[in-house]
Each structure stands twice: as C-alpha cells, then as structure tokens.
TrEMBL record:
GO-annotated molecular function: (S)-2-hydroxyglutarate dehydrogenase activity; L-malate dehydrogenase (quinone) activity
Highest taxon of source: Bacteria
The species this protein was found in: Kocuria turfanensis
Keyword Oxidoreductase (UniProt): yes
Keywords of the record: FAD, Flavoprotein, Oxidoreductase, Tricarboxylic acid cycle
Annotated Pfam families: Mqo
Cofactors demanded by this protein: FAD
GO BP: tricarboxylic acid cycle
Family: Belongs to the MQO family.
Pathway it works in: Carbohydrate metabolism; tricarboxylic acid cycle; oxaloacetate from (S)-malate (quinone route): step 1/1
EC numbers, comma separated: 1.1.5.4
Name of protein: Probable malate:quinone oxidoreductase
InterPro entries the record matches: FAD/NAD-bd_sf (IPR036188), MQO (IPR006231)
Enzyme class: oxidoreductase
Length: 494
C-alpha cells in the first residue's frame, strides 16, 4: 500500500461477519455508543462461514459432554480444571445473551438457543472406567452438580432412545446433564449484527480486506476490495482493527506486520456431517451425545450424535468426519495454506507437522472412507440407523494454530488464540474450538488488553450485561444459583 491517505475513517473496523465480530461490535456499541463502527464481510451475508448452523456442532461448549476437556492422566486420575474453566466461560456468554434479550436487543431466544441435554456415551471397560472417574471429578463442583452417571441400559435408553435400540452386548456407560443447549450461532450472529446496525453501526457486504498498513499516528489503513463489482479498491482508516475473519485471520495478521503474529502458522482441517432432517426420526432423539475421539483425531473430530435446530425445525447431525483442504475458509482458495508460509513460521510449522503425523494419518484415512463406512461409524451410536435417510453435508473449515515452542520448536494447538498488538490498536483471533461458545469471555479479554485505559470505566455497564463479571461462579454457589437461574429463565432453557 503506497498512499497514507484513507478515503474514509472509522473508530472501529471489524473484519469478518461472524459471531466474534458481532459480539465485539455489540459490546463496543453498548460501552461507547458514540464510536463509529464499521463491519466488513466478504460474503453476501453475515454468519455464513464457521458461525453457520451447519458448519459447527452448535454444542454451546460447556464441557458437560466433551471428554477431551477432562483428559485422563497416566495414573488414571482426571483433572476437572479445564472443564470448569470452559463452563465458567460459557456462563458468561449465556448471561450476555440473556441481558440482550431482556433489553429487547435480541429476538425470542428460541430462535437461537434451545434446551438439549448433553451426554457422554462410551463403550468397553477402559472407557467406562474413565467416564466414571470423570463424573466423580466433576460432580462435586457447583457447575456440574446436576450431572448424572449410569451404566444401566434402560436409563440410558430413557435419556437417548436411539442410542440403545438394537445395541449388542457389552459394557456401556453414560453421563447426562439436563442443562445442555443447542445454539444456532449463525442466527445469533445475524441478530447481533442487526442490533449493531440499529445503533448506527455500518455493515458492508462483499468487502474483502486485502492489506493492512500501520500509519505513523498509530492508526491503520485497510485496503478493501469489492467482490460484488469491479470498482476500484477503497481505503479505510481506523483507530482500532479487529481481525475476526475465521480462517482468513492469519493472512491478514501476517500482512499487518505486527511482531505478535510472528511464528504463527495454520493447519486447515475440513469435515463432513451426516444429516437427517426426517422429523419422525429427529423427534425420537433430544440430546447431544459425545463419545471418545479416534486415535490421532483432533478434538474437533470427536464423534457425536446431535439434536440441531434451524428456524425451529429439529434435525439430527452425526460426525464430523475429518478431511483436508488447503483453503482456510470454506469459500476460500486452495492457495491459502502455501501462501501463509513465511520464513518466521516455516520451522514451527515443520516441527509441529512432524510431531503430529498421527493426525495426518487420521485425515488420510477419513478421506478414504465411503458413505457405507461413515454409516457404520454412525451405527456405533445409533445401531439401527438407516443410511438412506442420511445425507452427507460439508462442515465448516477450521484452521488449527501452529506456533513456536521453546522446547519443541513448534506445536499444533487445539484451541483459540487471541493476538493483540502491544499498543492495543489491532487484535485478531486464530484457532477453533471452543470458539463461538466462548465469544463473550474472549471479547472481554480483548477489551481488557486493547483498551486498558477504559476498562475500569466500562465496568459498571459490563456488570449490568454480565452479572457475574469478575467472579467465579463455581466458588460462589449462592450467586451461581441466582445468576444461572435468571439466565435460564430469560433464555427459556430451564
């Protein structure tokens, strides 16, 4: 970029129209109503990539059923710390949504969140013993006090009938949490963006940021391409930039040149679902049932049989089946991966790749599967499933973080990474799960890092929006009952 002059100016530039940008945009409009906020989305609608209802599991990650958040140690013990942390984070998201509903800024909550119990289901002695130990580690904690555990087949059938119809002999164990939910993050994104627009925020579609350049006064100039027509590129100057472009965030952070983005790479993982929209079948299953991941599989590929809601209609989803495409976005380019390689991240990416050859082997095996083999995997959870009733659909594209590590040279990280410049003028988000479910705590972290001089002045409004802001609910049982009870009532998920 050669010109230091921008044709337009804004206080805040949000790049990408997913749940992260939507959440940050609403926060900033609530905290600083007079700020100009501009959101740019490269597609013709928001919430269409990873936030789309069929591009993610919609679990509302609260660690109630996701076994990878409470791994078993070599001595057989189970540490509940990560599960507790993730559940605490999801409680913040739920409180934020409930406040927006109460203030009339989001629609009927059933348009984006529905009560769906969360289950873990495992087979065999070793996995059953682990699940029991996990239950014993989590149950004493306030946030998991409603969790139940059983190996009684009739009881499991009462929770999720399809999982037990026609099941053969063998030990089966399950845990069940009634407070689980299904979240349509695409719809939630659209409603938050609509609120942002109603408060004066500007949203533009078909706009792709192709370069970012820091100016001498600390502002940023974004070069923007209009993907909908052939008009020339425009320049937008912003005091603060958030790169919430999903898989497209890494290339833009690299172009920004900030030191904090050095050494980061990305490994794209694609996926497929089996989907059943037959309401007669879907009506027989009301749960999100998670199992154990295959050896070498990334956490996002843990098999699960889910109830899903889209526009009030119930369907079933099973998967995901892993795959590989070099594009960083579902509607991206096959050149995304090779073009992301830089001198500063080549070594970390190489070291991380060599240390995760089992993942490569897993993805290759997944790519080679036929539909019949995928139906066989489904039948481990739903023994009498009729493969002809299930269609294969493409899931969202995920880009796992690869970064420097002092001891190993480079590591592959299964999580979400917030990158902020030292001066707070630009921030971006990399990674995947738990992602959308923890959008609110991630954005609270961003606000503290990027606006350290303002965060204390925002505290009163933040506590109105999130009553447990700054407090750990698990350590305050009475407050937890009050806050979680009110949130569940407002969202209709008692």
């Amino acid at each position: 970029m050669t010109s230091p002059q921008a044709t337009e100016s804004t206080d805040v530039l949000l790049i990408g129209g997913g749940i992260m940008s939507a959440t940050l945009g609403v926060f900033l409009k609530e905290l600083e109503p007079q700020w100009d906020i501009t959101l740019l989305e490269r597609l013709d609608q928001v919430g269409a990539e990873s936030s789309n209802v069929w591009n993610n599991a919609g679990t509302g990650h609260s660690a109630l059923c996701e076994l990878n958040y409470a791994p078993q140690a070599a001595d057989g013990s189970v540490n509940p710390a990560k599960s507790l942390s993730i559940n605490e984070q999801f409680q913040l998201s739920r409180q934020f949504w409930a406040s927006l509903v109460s203030e009339g800024k989001l629609q009927d909550p059933r348009t984006f969140i529905n009560p769906v119990p969360h289950m873990s289901l495992v087979f065999g002695d070793a996995h059953s013993d682990y699940l029991r130990r996990r239950y014993e580690a989590l149950k004493p904690n306030k946030l998991f006090e409603r969790m139940e555990y059983t190996e009684d087949r009739d009881r499991i059938a009462g929770w999720a009938p399809l999982t037990m119809h026609g099941r053969g002999a063998g030990r089966v164990a399950a845990s069940w949490s009634p407070e689980g939910t299904d979240v349509d993050f695409g719809e939630l994104t659209r409603q938050q963006v609509a609120h942002l627009q109603a408060r004066g925020g500007e949203v533009r579609y078909g706009q792709q940021v192709v370069d970012l350049d820091r100016q001498s006064d600390g502002t940023w100039v974004a070069e923007v391409k209009n993907r909908l027509n052939a008009e020339g590129h425009r320049l937008i100057r912003a005091k603060f930039v958030f790169v919430g472009a999903g898989g497209g965030a890494l290339p833009l952070l690299q172009k920004s040149g900030i030191r904090e983005a050095k050494g980061y790479g990305g490994f794209p993982v694609s996926g497929l679902w089996l989907r059943n929209t037959d309401e007669n079948v879907a009506s027989q299953h009301n749960a999100k049932v998670y199992g154990q991941a295959s050896v070498g599989a990334p956490p996002m590929s843990v098999p699960h049989l889910d109830t899903r809601y889209e526009h009030g209609r119930r369907a079933l989803l099973f998967g995901p089946y892993g795959g590989f495409k070099p594009n960083f976005l579902k509607q991206g380019s096959f050149l995304d991966l090779p073009l992301s390689v830089r001198p500063h991240n080549l070594y970390p990416m190489t070291r991380a790749g060599l240390a995760n050859l089992d993942l490569v082997k897993y993805l290759l095996s997944e790519l080679a599967k036929t539909k019949g083999q995928r139906v066989e995997a489904l039948q481990q959870f739903y023994p009498t499933a009729d493969g002809s009733q299930w269609e294969l659909v493409e899931a969202g594209q995920r880009v796992q973080v690869m970064k420097r590590d002092k001891e190993k040279g480079g590591v592959l990280q299964f999580g979400t990474e917030l990158i902020t410049a030292a001066d707070g003028s630009i921030a971006g988000l990399l990674g995947a799960s738990p992602g959308a479910s923890t959008a609110v705590p991630i954005m609270l972290n961003l606000l503290a890092k990027s606006f350290p001089g303002r965060i204390s002045g925002w505290e009163a409004r933040l506590k109105e929006l999130i009553p447990s802001y700054g407090v750990t609910l698990n350590d305050h049982p009475q407050l937890a009952d009050e806050v979680m009870g009110r949130t569940a009532q407002v969202l209709g998920i008692n």
